[in-house]
Each structure stands twice: as C-alpha cells, then as structure tokens.
Design the sequence.
C-alpha cells in the first residue's frame, strides 16, 4: 500500500509517547490539581468516618447522659477528654454523633442523586432523542416541577408519607430530577447532530445501539459532573429538611438534625450546632472540589492535551 | 478513467429531489415559509465513476448528499439506487441497502465517536450486520486499517490521539468495511492541510480502482473536484445549473455561474494575471429566492427573460446539461494552455 | 535597507507546556517594504499565525516572545510599553483575522465599532467619525453603507463582515496591514472580491501587506515576496515568480505538488508523506527530513541554515544548490 509507507514513520514516534498507562495518567492529573487533591482527601476522610464509625467512636451516638449535659469541647474549661467535641443538651457525645451522622448524609446524598439522576437522565434521553410530542410532554412536566418551590413540595410529600431515610431519598429524588433531564436532553440534542451518530446510522446501526453505544457514553461526563455537584446540594437539602424536623427520626443521627437540636443553645453552648455545621461544610466543599476536578479531566480537550 | 464509465449503467438515479425546511417564525410557529435547501435536483451516476458536486456554501450540495446517504428524508422526489426506489423500502430492506451506500464526512473530529477505540469504530459496521466475529473480525478490521494506511498499533487508541488526516483514514476504513458500491464523500479533505489532502485524495483514487467504487464527491474547491471527478455537477441555490464531464466543464463551460466560479479561483501561476470575472453582490437570502433564474441577480449576462422564466436543465445531446437561457460558448482551455508554459 | 516598513529580526516565540517550551516561531527574520505584499505560507502549526500575533504584540499566555526585534519604521515594537504599542496598533498597523464573526463585537453596531477605532486614534468628534465610517464602508465596496452602520454583525453575511473588518483595519490608513487567512472562511466568489479589495487598497495607499495563508493560489495571486514556513522556521524565501518557477526547498516542491491544479491533468498528486511533526518531538537535523524524498544521511545530523544559494533566493536545505 502506498499509504501505509506514508504513515509508518510517524506512527512509530507517536506510539512511543502514548505508552503511559491510563491509570497513572489519571493519578498524575489528580495531583496536578490542588483542589482535586484536597477534595479527594476530604471525601476519603468522610467516607472513612462513615465506614469505620463503630471503631472511631467512644460512645453510642444515641446514648443519653443527663449528668454530662452541654459539656464544652475538651480544650475548653470544663471539657473532658471523654467528650472530645463536648456533648449536647441530652449529654450525647457530639463527636460520636457527627461520625455516625456522616453515614446518613452520605447515604442520602448519594442515594437521592442516583435516584433523581436515573429519572432525569432517562427522561432527558427520551426527550432529546425522540423529540416531537415526547419531548414536549416531558419538558412541560419539567417546567411544572420548576414552577413549584421544591422545598414546599417536599414538605407536602413528607407530611403525607411521613419522614424516614427511604422516603427522604425518594422524595428528594422525585423533586430534583429536572436539572438532570435538562442537561441530558441538551447534550443529547447536540450529540445527535454530530457526524459520528450520522455515521452510525449510515452503517445501519439500530436505535438501541445508537443510544447506548454512541449517545450515552458521550453524555456521561456532563452527567457525572452535575451529579457530583448535586451530591453537595442534596447533603445541604437533607440538613435543611432535618432542621425543619422532617429528616430522619431518632435514634438515627443526621447532621441537619444536630444543627436543629443545637439551634436553641447557640448563645450559650455554641459547639452543639457549630461542629455539625463544620462537618456539612467540609463534606460539601470536598464534593465540590472533586467535582471541579472531574469536570476538568472529563473534558476531552484536557485529555487531548495530555494524550 | 476506464471505458466502461461511458456506457456504464446508472447505479444511482436522482429525480426532482427536493428538501424544503420550514422556517419557524415568531411565537405561533406558522410554517408558511420554506427554506428551499434543495429544489428539484436530477442526475444519474454511473457505476464506477466519480461524480463531483461543487458549489458554494448553502447551495444544497451537502443536503443532497445526506439525502442520498439516507440520513435525511427528502421532501419530495425519488432516489433510485441499484435499481430500487429507496423511498419504498421497509426498515429491513433499508438496512440491507445501506451496506452498499456509505458516507465519508467532512469533519474528521466530529465523525468519530470520541469514546470508542479505533478497533470498535471500524468493527462496528461488521458487528451491526453480523458479518464477522471473533478472530475473523479482528483480521477484517486489521485488513481494513492496512488498506487505508494504518496498522495494528492503532487498534487500541482513541480518535483524539490521531491527526486530522489519520482520522479521515479511520472514517474511510469504516465506510469501506461493508464493501459498499457507492460512497458519498462529503467534503472529505476540506478540513485537512494541503499536503494531507493530497494523501487522502490519492488514497481515495487507489481504493476506487481496487474495489470499483462509485463516488459522489461533494466539495467547494473546484481544483480538488476536477482532480478526482469524471463528471461534475455545479449547484447554485439548491439547483443544478450545469452537469458535464470535467473536460467539457472546464474547457467549454456553458453556465455563467460556472464561468464566474472558475474565474474566481486563484491561479497558481504568478505570471498569469487573469482578468477575472468578479461577481457582484452576495448570495440572495435563501428564504426569499429570486424569481426566474436564481442567478440573474448576479449574472453579468442577465436579460429580462431571466427574471421571469426559470431555465430548465437541458441536455445538449452529448451529455452536457445546462440550465441557462443564454448558454455560453467558448473555449478557455486553449487560452489557458497558450499562456502557460508547462513547468518542469 | 533603511526604507523598510517592517523589519523582523530573529524573532523567537515559545509556548510553554507541561512537556517543556515549544518554539512556535524559531528565529524568523524578514522585511516588508511600503506597498509590498509579503506572504507567509505553510500548513497548520508551522508558526505562521504565531508570527503575525507576535508582531502585533498579541501573543498571550502560555505564549511568549523571548527574543528578537520587530522594527516598525525603525522603532522596536517589542520594547514599547503597552500604551505606546496601542498607538501603533489599529493606527499605523492593523490586522484582519480569519473569522470575521468572532473578531467583531456582537453587541455593538457596525458604525459604533468603526467610529470607535477612528476616534481612538484621531481627534475627531462623533459625527465626523460616523461620516468617516460610512466613507470607509463605501470604499470597501459596501453600497448601502449608511444602512449597514446601524446593523449588528450577525445581520451581515460572512463576506460583508470581512469587508467591515477590512474597513475597520483601514480606517486609520495604516501603513502595514497584517491579514491572517483573510479569506479562508469565505466562498471563492467572495474570496475573489476580498482579495481584489486588499490589492486595490494596498496599491492606492502604498500599504505594506503581510499575508498569512495556506493557499498557494492566493499567494500567486497576491504576493510580491513569499516566505515558506515549516515547523516554526523559514525554509524558503524569495520572490513569488521565483518560488513558483524554481522552488528550491523540497517542502515547497511538495506543497506545490500536493495542490490540485485546474490547468494540469494528473492521475495522482505528489503528496508529501507523513504529517507535520509535533513541535515537542522534533526530529534531529533538518525538521523536514523524515518526510523528504531527497533526504540523505547528512540531513539527519545537522540543521541546515537559511542560505542564499541563488540570488535573492534563500532556502534551508543542504541540497538546494544541487537543483533538485
């Protein structure tokens, strides 16, 4: 082949530079980004807390001790080494509660995002791919959801169904799918017009193949990015709902609930509300930092630069 | 050019092909205005030839190509391919016909799925049609890659790791996979560097000979189209204004638009300062097309009849078609040859 | 030559990347005289655009001009402060770009944008500036200029926008016009109009033109002198006639052979094999040797210098004088 000899020289130079493994490249990319490193560190920290909670806590988070009410953290006057971060109004150990609370925050954050992401992505894909009346119906429903204040909708749902971990996930899920649907639909609309989708049509690929092989993988990166961001908002949302008394019920612990409990004591015993607040902030920051980094590496242009 | 082109059987026959896009206006979305992207195009392509389609942006050449490749539904008109009317096929038959009818796209950066490896891209047509699997699939893919000048070492790479020319080669391998009869080449070299353009054009020519392919070669660059085509159609505002063999078109053009188009091309010869025909004005607004001959607003020879009557595309008896009330009759090639001593 | 308008001396521009500094423009020297059109021709990544941006002082991070001089009427633009440089830009020297849509501000009217340039460099009041804008638009062949000045960029076609860009570039009667692929985004019939326009204006005003292009046809049509660039360096420089009649560098020959011609019937084009090298992985010796059919052992060892083997004809090739 004439053409073959053309390329050979060039090819050998290129292949040599491309031998770095994908994993090591990704790791290198991660540590190149300061925010990415910090985000990953924070998320690993919180995940470890959630996983190893029983071994990290000196007390049962629900254990009430009327004799040790509102003890300050250990480094303050009147604090003791038993209760590192002090105790709340019922004498429960704040450190233990925060550690166990991380479980609820993460479960709800991730669970609700997966649930709403699934609904939103499916509807967005349908609307974007098929267009026409399917698109019209789905997008009008989405508009309707946007028109109603989410928190109000959740309050109504929770008042009817009654609070609980599973209901929280479901309720947050069905009230916050709209952004996913919009983003996915927009992406699908633009990818559908790209030439590689036309090329797939031209070789006779069926719709199913086009959706799952060509469109979905290309939507995935933006989907992951908004999912990451939404984990952060969902954690805050759970905290708000718990703060309003519609979160998980005792004896389960959540950071939002702790915040709510500490509300009355802010003036006298600031630590009761402050530490769960800091826990929320750290987790959310971690998720956002990591999300920023994800957005960077999932951008194909970034890959090309490092490819 | 082999002889069998001349009396070759038409493999593709397009008649009165139209594509009108509704122009959505305002809040109520009344569809009473149409953008006539392709407005009644008819031609035949013979088996084994390269049929060039040339024209400026917005002339409808790409839309025509997409309709032929069955990627866009026509508003009206027929496309007969290999003796069958494509609009009368059911889903299954259409998939079978597609094997013979492939397309190569302009933008090598958008025509390959960025999330698929080269192997999967080239293997996909074979998998979709169940033509190969396992070891045979690997062999077939490798053969295809070698056919376009790539090799084994490229199989596991992603498109972004390749240069524009190499990506175009991958796209060609994908189009070749199903052993098609006709390939629509939609501006396949416009996005590439000059030296790479030449490589791809040579590759296309080599493949055509080897597999007896028929090409529809769509491009805006006349020198490129002339280089690769046997016959050429010139389009202007959704219509074909002239069809001729390349020699007839360049030596004896009959439509004033073809003349202007040719004259506008910068000549690669600094000694020859041509008196070029510079067309006045720009393309008319496509939503509001001129009456009569669509070219009359820019035509240096326009008469009053041109404003009223639409000229028909007519055969001069020797396969040279022109749509003009006052076809030109001159022979510029002699002039060109005289002024230009052969180089090297 | 003391009369030269623009004199670029040993210009070197690098782009910093993770893999080290990449020399996009490597030791480039040339001159443009008043009324002369110099074309820089080459393929993508050869450094032709980086050269024009370096001259205009428009290289931004991660790019940096690290050496050389850009003398405009004798004063070095590279050593000027930003404020002083702005007095030259848009006034004595202007630039037009490939994509007229992105170079025009979408939220201002055409009239606004032209008169702004005029008022910035000439002390005239608003009304005079608008009047001058209309005049400029008429000069670039826009017939309904008084209507166009009230329109926004998106209301105009590509050819019209490029005319507007040229009108803006010429508003202050520059002595030097840098045109970076001015017609690449346009159709051939419109390209013909724009090239014609640039030619006329340069003849009338004795403007020096630095034309950046990849199209050899445009070069033959427009240029007096031609500079061929490859991988950041000048590989050949001579008059336009000499370049087309007697190309000396194998790359130039390859470019000429790669371009299909209307008047010549060829079965196959003489393509240059391979692709432009990655600037981070430059081959040893002559950067063109891996693609060159005339390459010999010596080409791999040492980088050839740009030598005047023939009168007023420079080539960076050790075999140029053999008359390949």
Sequence:
């Amino acid at each position: 082949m004439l053409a073959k000899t053309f390329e050979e020289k060039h090819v050998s130079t290129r292949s040599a530079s491309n031998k770095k493994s994908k994993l090591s490249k990704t790791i290198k990319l991660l540590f190149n980004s300061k925010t990415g490193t910090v985000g990953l560190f924070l998320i690993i920290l919180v995940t470890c807390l959630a996983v190893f909670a029983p071994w990290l806590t000196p007390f049962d988070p629900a254990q009430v001790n009327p004799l040790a009410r509102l003890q300050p953290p250990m480094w303050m006057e009147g604090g003791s080494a038993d209760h590192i971060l002090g105790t709340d109004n019922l004498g429960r150990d704040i450190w233990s509660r925060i550690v166990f609370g991380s479980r609820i925050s993460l479960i709800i954050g991730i669970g609700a995002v997966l649930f709403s992401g699934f609904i939103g992505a499916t509807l967005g894909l349908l609307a974007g791919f098929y267009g026409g009346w399917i698109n019209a119906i789905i997008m009008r429903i989405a508009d309707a959801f946007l028109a109603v204040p989410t928190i109000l909708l959740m309050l109504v749902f929770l008042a009817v169904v009654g609070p609980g971990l599973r209901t929280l996930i479901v309720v947050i899920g069905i009230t916050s799918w709209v952004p996913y649907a919009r983003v996915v639909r927009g992406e699908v609309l633009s990818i559908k017009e790209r030439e590689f989708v036309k090329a797939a049509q031209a070789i006779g690929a069926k719709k199913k193949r086009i959706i799952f092989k060509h469109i979905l993988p290309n939507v995935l990166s933006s989907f992951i990015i908004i999912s990451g961001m939404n984990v952060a908002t969902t954690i805050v949302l759970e905290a708000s709902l718990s703060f309003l008394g519609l979160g998980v019920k005792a004896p389960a612990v959540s950071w939002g609930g702790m915040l709510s409990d500490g509300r009355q004591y802010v003036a006298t015993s600031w630590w009761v509300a402050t530490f769960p607040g800091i826990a929320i902030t750290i987790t959310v920051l971690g998720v956002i930092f990591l999300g920023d980094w994800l957005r960077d590496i999932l951008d194909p242009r970034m890959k090309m630069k490092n490819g | 050019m082999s002889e069998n082109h001349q009396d070759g059987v038409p493999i593709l026959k397009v008649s009165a092909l139209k594509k009108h896009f509704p122009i959505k206006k305002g809040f109520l979305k009344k569809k009473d205005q149409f953008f006539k992207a392709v407005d009644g195009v008819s031609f035949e392509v013979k088996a084994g030839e390269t049929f060039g389609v040339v024209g400026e942006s917005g002339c409808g050449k790409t839309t025509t190509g997409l309709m032929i490749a069955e990627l866009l539904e026509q508003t009206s008109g027929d496309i007969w391919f290999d003796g069958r009317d494509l609009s009368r096929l059911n889903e299954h038959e259409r998939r079978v016909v597609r094997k013979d009818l492939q397309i190569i796209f302009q933008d090598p950066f958008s025509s390959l799925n960025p999330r698929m490896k080269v192997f999967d891209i080239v293997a996909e047509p074979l998998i979709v049609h169940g033509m190969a699997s396992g070891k045979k699939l690997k062999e077939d893919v490798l053969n295809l890659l070698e056919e376009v000048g790539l090799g084994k070492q490229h199989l596991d790479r992603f498109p972004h790791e390749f240069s524009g020319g190499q990506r175009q080669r991958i796209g060609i391998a994908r189009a070749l996979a199903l052993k098609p009869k006709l390939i629509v080449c939609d501006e396949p070299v416009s996005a590439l560097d000059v030296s790479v353009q030449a490589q791809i054009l040579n590759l296309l020519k080599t493949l055509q000979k080897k597999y007896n392919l028929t090409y529809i070669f769509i491009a805006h660059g006349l020198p490129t189209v002339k280089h690769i085509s046997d016959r050429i159609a010139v389009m202007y505002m959704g219509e074909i204004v002239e069809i001729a063999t390349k020699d007839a078109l360049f030596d004896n053009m009959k439509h004033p638009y073809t003349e202007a188009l040719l004259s506008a091309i910068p000549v690669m010869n600094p000694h020859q300062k041509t008196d070029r025909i510079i067309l006045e004005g720009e393309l008319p607004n496509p939503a509001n097309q001129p009456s009569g001959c669509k070219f009359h607003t820019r035509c240096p020879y326009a008469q009053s009849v041109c404003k009223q009557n639409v000229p028909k595309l007519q055969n001069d008896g020797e396969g040279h078609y022109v749509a003009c009330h006052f076809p030109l009759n001159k022979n510029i090639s002699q002039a060109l040859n005289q002024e230009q001593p052969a180089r090297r | 030559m003391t009369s030269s308008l623009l004199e670029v001396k040993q210009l070197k521009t690098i782009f910093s990347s993770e893999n080290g500094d990449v020399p996009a423009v490597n030791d480039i020297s040339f001159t443009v005289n008043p009324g002369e059109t110099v074309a820089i021709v080459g393929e993508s990544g050869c450094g032709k655009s980086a050269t024009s941006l370096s001259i205009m002082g428009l290289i931004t991070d991660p790019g940096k001009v690290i050496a050389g001089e850009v003398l405009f009427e004798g004063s070095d633009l590279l050593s000027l402060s930003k404020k002083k440089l702005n007095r030259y830009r848009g006034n004595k020297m202007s630039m037009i770009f490939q994509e007229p849509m992105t170079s025009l501000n979408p939220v201002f009217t055409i009239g606004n944008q032209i008169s702004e340039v005029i008022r910035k460099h000439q002390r005239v009041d608003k009304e005079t500036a608008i009047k001058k804008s209309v005049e400029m638009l008429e000069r670039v062949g826009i017939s309904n200029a008084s209507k166009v000045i009230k329109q926004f960029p998106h209301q105009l076609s590509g050819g019209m926008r490029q005319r507007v860009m040229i009108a803006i570039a010429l508003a202050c009667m520059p002595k030097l016009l840098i045109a970076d692929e001015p017609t690449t985004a346009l159709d051939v019939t419109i390209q013909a109009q724009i090239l014609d326009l640039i030619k006329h204006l340069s003849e009338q005003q004795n403007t020096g033109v630095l034309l950046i292009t990849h199209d050899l046809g445009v070069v033959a049509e427009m240029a007096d002198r031609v500079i061929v660039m490859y991988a950041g360096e000048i590989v050949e420089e001579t008059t336009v006639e000499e370049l087309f009649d007697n190309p000396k560098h194998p790359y130039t020959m390859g470019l000429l052979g790669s371009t299909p011609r209307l008047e010549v019937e060829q079965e196959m084009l003489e393509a240059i094999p391979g692709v432009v090298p990655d600037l981070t992985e430059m081959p040893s010796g002559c950067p063109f040797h891996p693609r060159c059919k005339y390459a010999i052992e010596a080409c791999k060892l040492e980088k050839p210098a740009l030598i005047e083997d023939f009168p007023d004809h420079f080539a960076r090739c050790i075999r140029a004088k053999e008359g390949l």
